[in-house]
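Dear Dr. V.,

Thank you for agreeing to look over these. As mentioned in my earlier message, I'm a first-year student in the group and I'm still getting used to reading structure tokens, so any feedback on how I've presented them would be very welcome. I ran two proteins. I've put each sequence directly above its structure. The first is here:
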Amino acid sequence: MNQRLRYLFVVLAVAAAFAACKKEDVQTGLSQINGEVMQANISGVNGPTSGKPGETLTFNLLWHNTQQGLWFDHVSDSTADDDTRIVKLYSVIRTDSIPTDSVPRPISYTFKAPTAGTYYLKFYKVENTDKSAIIDTVVIK
């Protein structure tokens, strides 16, 4: 009987601890640590110019930490039309750990073309204009 009461007490204590945690208390990813996610400038792109259908192609993207409080968050990839991909890089403001340099930081981006053809990858800067975008052409044979 005494053991059952102890067991019941432990179960209730653990249940109370879990109930006290809120979903907002759990941090999953840099964008929830300190703050605002913002688009960053992609300043350079280096990658292949050809490939095969279904092959994963990796591009190295460079971005500058010009505000010295930005950390990489994610790369977004959307389809403009059948053969054009829009690529944007996002960073997050972090005040808990501020880098002191503004050197270019490399990030990898992968692209997989489903079929043969010519694809245009548009890597956008903050201005989001075709004039400021870096456009890579990839031929898939």
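The second protein is here, in the same arrangement:
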Amino acid sequence: MMAEVLIFFEKLKNNSFLKVASGDLLSKVFMVAVQFFIINKLSVAQYSNFSVILASIMLGYQVSCAPIERIYITQFSRYENKILLLGFLFSGVSAFFSVAWLWGSITANECFVIFFAICTLSYQQLLRIKAQQKMFFFLFSFSEVIKNCIWLALVFLLVSFGFDEPVVLIAALIVATLPSILCFKEVGENKVVWNLSGVVDDFLNVKYILLYSLIGSIIPYLPLIMSKSDYSSTVVATYGVAMRYQAILSMGAYAFNVVFVAKLASMDLEQRKSAIKKIYAFSPLLLIAYFTISSGVYLISPVVDGARYLYAQNVFLLLSVIPLVSVVGSVYINFLLLANLTRLVFYCFFVGFFVNFASYFLIKNIGGLYSPALASVCAYSTITLLIVICYYFSNKTRREN
């Protein structure tokens, strides 16, 4: 038994994917525990409010960081010293729009907490992006473990003493993020360029990466945004719960993407093709694991939420298709980006974004409260199909030339 444990840690030490996957798994265990605890303890009305606030924060910091991650990892030499400048610009703008979206429906305290949370989480994510580029994968994952562990402890204490307001729980997330930021001294500091001259030209040079990343950050939250616009707070809470369940499935896809993007950037064409073949070889096992986890989440969900969200299981089943489709698409997206075909990627995401809204309005009267989830599945399926088609046509063109 001890020998098997030692072998595992030796593999973990030398395997980037295992470092990220195991660290991500541990951090997600704490995250899932936090979310399950909150789902169980908050009333439906409270959780509806919590879901909207949390979604605005997650959307805000992902909108600010996703474009930077793409350009920093794939074009490191050009943007090495501008990551903090770009990060502060993006996080400030996205925080402003996130607060503006909810203005009038939330209190001044909640507006302040949302703005500060987006800026804090964005800064932490910028440091994680630097660690990812330098392939410090243990540090990349460990910082999330610390954050989620502290957040779990704080939420448990706060709720136990009766402080269960959504804004208080979000404030606890901000506090939990601060110690994790201190973990990144090992990353080292690059010389930071604070000069704004040339920033517009930089944006124009990577406009398609920025636009595709922006749309890619917004699409995951469209089901909640649509449910908030057209349905009751109970439906909003139902989508909030279902999306928390979906996040469990997304952790594998996220770990895969983190390592895959960084590794592909350092590979030549033949090495990339070999990497794809290895992925396909393991796909049957990955599918079995995926459906096993999906079934487990489906079965335990009524226990977690006390059966208060009657439709959460069905919404989760629909949303569970998305991480699987996303993994397939992400492989080809990375190839297209590395081949400088960012315009094609943007067009695919733009069409998918349009399909999301078009399909929602077409099926709204038929699908009822399931319409936002069905529209999201249509959007992701469209994006993946178009990405695969673009990849094969671009490959064919290169071979002919």
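From my reading of the second output: The two ends are 56 Å apart (CA to CA). Residues 288 and 294 are 10 Å apart (CA to CA). Does that match how you would interpret it?

Kind regards,
E.
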